[in-house]
Amino acid sequence: MLSDFVTSKTINALTLTANTPVPVWIPASGKRFVLQGVVLSASAATNVQILDGTVLVAIIPLAAGGPLFIPFGEQTGIQAANVGNVLNIQSAVAATLSGTIYGDEI
User: Fold this and answer.
1) Mean local confidence (pLDDT), 24-31
2) Residue 62 φ then ψ, to 5°
3) Fewer beta carbons under 10 A from the terminal one: N or C of the chain?
4) Is residue 76 part of a domain?
5) 28 lies in which domain range?
6) Cα three-residue angle 8-26-80, rounded to 5 degrees
7) Structural domains counted in the chain
8) Which are the contacts of 92, defined by CB distance < 8 A and separation ≥ 6?
9) pLDDT higher for 75 or 106?
10) Can you give the pLDDT at residue 4?
11) How much of the chain exceeds pLDDT 90, in percent?
């Protein structure tokens, strides 16, 4: 059980091509990510897709501009299905994404 996040990843003006996954969290060797939340903003209205490797695990609808905070649960979060899986983000349309993702590695 998780109580506090210990890992945060800053996303600085990440340019996304429509429907092309981009790695944003590569866990340490022998670990898996547990995504507990995101704070994201996009340059264009889009659906940001969170992927556990190549498997879609969440869709976040974003309006252009202001940030959106989405918690996935402090105690559970979204846990990678397998050790070593990479957390990828992709967008339904071309956009620039900024923000922070946070969670833990177990």
Assistant:
1) 96
2) -120, 135
3) N
4) yes
5) 7-105
6) 90
7) 1
8) 18, 19, 46, 47, 48, 49
9) 106
10) 58
11) 84
Supply the mean pLDDT for the chain.
92
Sheet holding 55-62, edge to edge: 22-25, 87-91, 46-52, 55-62
Residue 11 lies in a domain: yes
Buried (b) or exposed (e) across 42-71, using 16+ Cβ within 10 A?
A: bbbebebbbbbeeeebeebebeeeeebebe
CATH number for the domain spanning 62: value is: 2.60.120.260
Q: Is the dihedral of CA 39, 61, 77, 51 positive or negative?
A: negative
| Alpha carbon separation from 91 to 3, 40, 74, 100, 106 (Å, rounded) | 30, 12, 25, 16, 27
Residue type, 48: V
Q: How far apart are CA 36 and CA 102, in angstroms?
A: 6
Checking if the pLDDT of 5 tops 60, the result is: no
